[in-house]
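Sequence in, structure out. Go.
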Amino acid sequence: MTSVGSPFALAQKGVPMGVPPPGITLKEYLDDETLAMLHPYWQKFPPEHPLFYNILALIYVVLGFLSISGNILVLYIFLKFKNLRTPSNVLVMNLALSDLLIMATLVPECVINFFMGGVWQFGDLACQIHAFCGTIFGIAQISTLIFISYDRFNVVVRGMNATPLTFGKVFIFIMIVWIWSGLWGAGPFFGFGFYAMDGILASCSYGYMEHDIINRAYITAMFVSVYIIPLSIIIFCYYHIVKAVFHHEKAMREQAKKMNVASLKNNESDESTEMKIAKVAMVNISLWVVAWTPFAVICLIGVHATDSGLTPMVSAIPCLFAKMSCLYNPIIYSLSHPRYRKALKEACPWFCIDLGTDSGSVASKTSGTTEMKTDTA
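Output:
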């Protein structure tokens, strides 16, 4: 029998401390209240070493600080400068808001849990709310990216025939984003789906180890509806954007040949405005795919495979990748959006933003194409 003051005894009371004794499983290590929140599949694994949780805590602290401050800065700049508040940029602001809410609602409790030994400290209700926030804000992120992709498809591919994006339309788009996200997030509270503590113990998400028919239907439907279909729409939009760009470039070369000149461009090395827009947006989408694909695949494997072979440590990596998506957007827009860069330099001169004369003028045309075409369409 262990003494009351030993790490193992404290762990049984829900306060894991020190290195877990060798040869025990989570079923022996955790108290009854925590075990009730943890799927039996995860209970057969041994507790993770405290060093693992300490490393994750430090990673989450850095990731959370950079993501939250970056997205707050994006929202501040777009709200402060009136010339940036265009219909297209309202979608960008909604994306930054989604990213900010993901990090603000998920990271603090994860960091606390990691530093407290890696076990969820806040009870079952908080676990359900934690998972709900991850669902609604994560789906809002990808749904907003769909509308951003559609907006750029509308402008670049349809050109002067494009219907202008107005603030009224953007408001409808954003309403659709949050209603759609809310419906999926609320599902488990009404018996469609299941929220549970993750195998890593410090966070909560989908109960993808629960194999009943309703939960399988929920995870599968979500995989198709909020991952496969949106990704297909985004790929469709950017495929046609790139196709339109190549068609435009070919027409430019043929026209230059007819006029007996080398090129119609002022600088042959310059890329087209549309190509620059497509590259920036495709990088954004590609990073999102890298961030969310592992988590989507893990959920699908877990809910359908009777012996998935997943371990708590393996399941923790996709969760980290998913949260990293919130760091990408502020970096992308601060580096590639010249109007944002100019506003950021004015608002925060101590950032030492280098606008650049030549590159800046080309980039200005790049980032402004969507707004200009929208206004003139």
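Check: The chain has one domain: 49-376. Confidence is low (pLDDT under 50) at residues 1-16, 357-377.
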